[in-house]
């Protein structure tokens, strides 16, 4: 039996064939969609409950239409003094609008490189990145990026740091001040507007960086180990803050972290990267109910999920 559906936002036509007597389903995505994209359609479809053909088709089409970020077959390497260094190898994944996805993987495997490619700061050797159906070739204003270090300008106050992207864009000063203040309130820094970066703690500086990344109201927020340099207690508090901010703004987030606990607490899905050249070794859905608090980490479901992520890391020799 064959059913068909149109999913207009991604402008693709999906034909689903259900092979008689087989458990598995094969999906054919036409209209120039690549083989990798077909695999993504299959991945999405596998997460759907067993429904009749018509409902399956509708559900898959609906899920596809909510895909904000699509990464297809990324490869990148660098010329190094001792020869070619292959960093990413066939990395493909998708992120739905409003989803929180975490990457975990060993040091030096290419996580920062991956975020830089998604942000359009670098070009892949081959493969493509699509944001809302449009190929990313240059840095875009609808992508916010927070690095491991806050990278604030030492000679500008907290408020001036947060306002900077709007000023560079020619926004009126009064409007930029107003927007910066609203974000400083959101990240819990009201009262520190006139402080300089040297007068802040590590956690406060990262809050400023987060506010600065949010000032353009980006559709996609990329976080590269934003709490990596913080002590364990501050890091836990910042995770909670991030959950609160995410709840308030409902951004789509792609975050890199070394902490399995942090990934499971924050994410809807955890993707595990292999050693360099990195590829995706596993995808683990985190179906813990929200809102999540630090107490969530004491529940058996949380412990079981962290165990699953660690199992993959250990099976792949990544820890
Ligand atoms: N511009 C560049 N030129 C040459 N090599 C590079 C460049 N950028 C990254 N690399 C190499 O790519 C590899 C991956 O780097 P990347 O910073 O992406 O790793 P990472 O997974 O983020 O590591 P970490 O967890 O330590 O932050 C490293 O071996 C690095 O030397
Ligand atoms: Mg890195």
- Total domain count: 2
- Give helix and strand order, one letter per element, not per position: EEEHHEEEHEEEHHHEHEHEEH
Overall outline: globular
| Assigned CATH architecture of the largest domain | 3-Layer(aba) Sandwich
What percentage of amino acids are in beta strands? 25-35%
Q: Count of helical segments?
A: 9
Assign the CATH superfamily of the largest domain.
Answer: P-loop containing nucleotide triphosphate hydrolases
Would you mind describing this structure in some detail?
The protein has 319 residues and is an alpha/beta fold. It has two domains: 2-65, no CATH class; 69-315, 3-Layer(aba) Sandwich (Rossmann fold). 35% of the residues lie in helices and 26% in strands. It is built from nine helices and 13 strands. The protein has helices at residues 35-46, 53-65, 111-118, 158-168, 173-186, 202-214, 232-249, 260-266, 300-315, and strands at residues 2-7, 12-18, 25-29, 67-80, 83-96, 100-104, 126-131, 134-135, 143-146, 220-224, 252-256, 269-273, 280-285. The strands form three sheets. The chain has a six-stranded mixed β-sheet, with helices on both faces. Strands 5-4-7-8 form a four-stranded antiparallel β-sheet. Strands 1-2-3 form a three-stranded antiparallel β-sheet. Strand 10, helix 7 (232-249) and strand 11 form a beta-alpha-beta unit. Helix 4 crosses helix 5, helix 4 (158-168) runs parallel beside helix 6 (202-214) and helix 5 (173-186) crosses helix 6 (202-214). Mean pLDDT is 83; it is low at 1-36. Magnesium ion is lined by residues 111-112, 224.
